[in-house]
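User: Working on a comparison across species. This one is Transporter from Acetobacter oryzifermentans. Can you predict its structure so I can line it up against the others?
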Amino acid sequence: MKSMTLSLGQLWRSVSIIVRQALVGGGPPRKLDHLRWLFAPNLLSFGYALRTTISSLIALGIALWWELGSPQWAALTVWMVAQGTRGKSIAKARWHMFGMVVGTICAIVLVASMPQSPLLYIFFVAVGIGTFCFIGTLLPGPAAMTNYRIHGMRASGFTYVIIALDGIVAPDHIFQIAMARATYITLGIVVETTISSLFQYQLGLRARTRLATNFVQALKGAVPAILRLLQGDRRAVANSPGVFSTLIALSDQVEFAEIEMGKHQHEGDHARAALAAITVLLSRGLDLGALLEVPHSQGVEYQDTAQQVSTFLQALPDRLDNDQPIEPVLRDLTSLRATCRQLAAGCLEKEMEAATHPPLDEQQDEVLTRQGQLLHKLDTMLEELYLAIEQFEMSRNPQPHDHFRYPMKSYRDWRMAFTNSLRASVTIFLAGVLWITTAWPDGLTFIMFVGIVCALFSTLEQPALATQAFLHGTVCVIGMSALLDLWVMAQPTIYEMMAMCLAVPMLIGGLAFAWPPLVLAAVAYNLFLPILVGPINQGRMDEIMYFNTAMPLLLAMMFCMWMYRVFLPYDPDGLRWDMRVNILRGLRRLAGQRRPPAVTEIIGRSVDGFVRLSTMATDDGNTYVLERYLSGVLSSMTIALNVLRLRTVLAKNILPLEAQKAVEVMMERMQRFTGRYGGQYGRTARATHIAVEYLLNCEETEANLSVREEMLRALASLRVIETELAENRAFFDASSPYLDKAFT
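Assistant: Here's the predicted structure for Transporter from Acetobacter oryzifermentans:
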């Protein structure tokens, strides 16, 4: 018996060696990390794939039981709505339902208006999709697949095109067709939301915990940049583009946590306010970095205080992450702020004493002035951090009868909305022209797939890249469907066996969707698998039906990708230049605008532009150009914030007449700021420098404390503006659109 056991063990080892050599050859084993999502998924990914597969098969079974005409649309809707978390699934389901209602109504109106005019009919189908893309681009939130407000317009678009194209064949039955499509979509949404609710445990508690974790995660990303700013590294934020990207992504996820919490007490509003405070904190740090560029600005007091602040910041994320009481943290932060204010007041006292007891040591007075300004800026940074921690505590421990509100911000780009709309409309109209001119029997299927792709991706900033990934998933699903349709699905005769055949391919698609690098390809796979399998009660997808569906699908993907690359293609240089022109125009308006925008709006727009720039695809030759643009966006934000502070100082009318006049001249120059050398760029920079010199002379002899404080505030803002204009001269030179001269 022992010998038999040994022989079986030896046989197993021999077979293992043979199989391993056949798979990986005689060399070292190959790394299969890129397939870990398939053979070693984590528990959450596997749970999502299993849950969604079960929901999809249940929706398909109910649709077959009800003997609906196209039951595959119920399974497709499940995959379209299902997301990794409960909050995302519910949010997407709501907007999908809204989009379905809007698209259905518009499709019925279209078919009832012009059933006998093919070219005009296709034209208005294209116009409808373009309109939905236009509205979707203007909705709040980033232009991403995870923005479910935009998804509502996407759902309106492909519901509109599907019902409208089905109505061409039978316009007299458009109401029945529309109700059938609405039934499929509603069934899929109801099944998915019901099944996903069974897999949730302590949803509200986990949502609140996630809000706190998100803040700590954002703070951990921002602290290294702040520490480098305290040391004088002005490019700390520009060299860390992921900081703002993380803040925006985490802020967008707050609404999903609010949905999961159900009845809540504005925890989400406090969480958004806390994340926004971190953004303002970074902008304050940019001011401090600009002042550190001024020669002889760092004294012993600032260096000692900055070291204390650095030590506090390094330990802060861990102190907040361990669910410790917040009072010791706020007490330490208050002590640091008191130290900054005390040292700044000491510098001001020494300045006043020197000004009232001549002779005046100009060099010492200048050092004291710069030291006091640095300490004052450091105090404002700590004040913003204090507000962020307070909001974090309110989100973690909500108070009764809280009425605090901090809604989501939206920054509309009308030009991008028009471009997205026109691109989608022209693509669909050309697809319709191809169908009409060639009389292709499967042309309607081709147009339907083109409409689905345009509705999904035309609101993205880089639709060509998204369509390319979608094409990869389409090729995979065509191959998998060929295996199912031509071999596997011919055998089962009952639903249970068909569900077992579809379970494994659907499970693979769910696992791929849960792995970020394959998201878009997995979306195509999951959406088109039910369509290409086409389960029905009275038959099966035969060879002819399969090829007549797969070929239009593949051609539609290739056609859309080609159109996105040919008609109004993604142009990073053009987008950067437009952003640059808008920045210069905004600085001009800000200096003379009667009602200036809020600080949060300026920061929000600048951060949005910074994130868009950091995600733009560039080749190696334009790396320098992209870096200059990133620095320029941050510089323009810093200048804009200090222009607002100068306007506040001027509005108080406390400055002496001569100092007030010098600042007003600088603001007048900023109102004509175009950025062109030999024009208003040089004049604005020169006017800023003259104002700095004039306020320095006035401040040295000013004996009134309140007037001196206002002069120091104005002087600090002017110095920041002067430093930013000098350091980012390449960006503000509007005569070189793409910074080619600076690069050469």
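For your comparison, note: The chain is about 75% helix and 0% strand.

User: Helpful, thanks.
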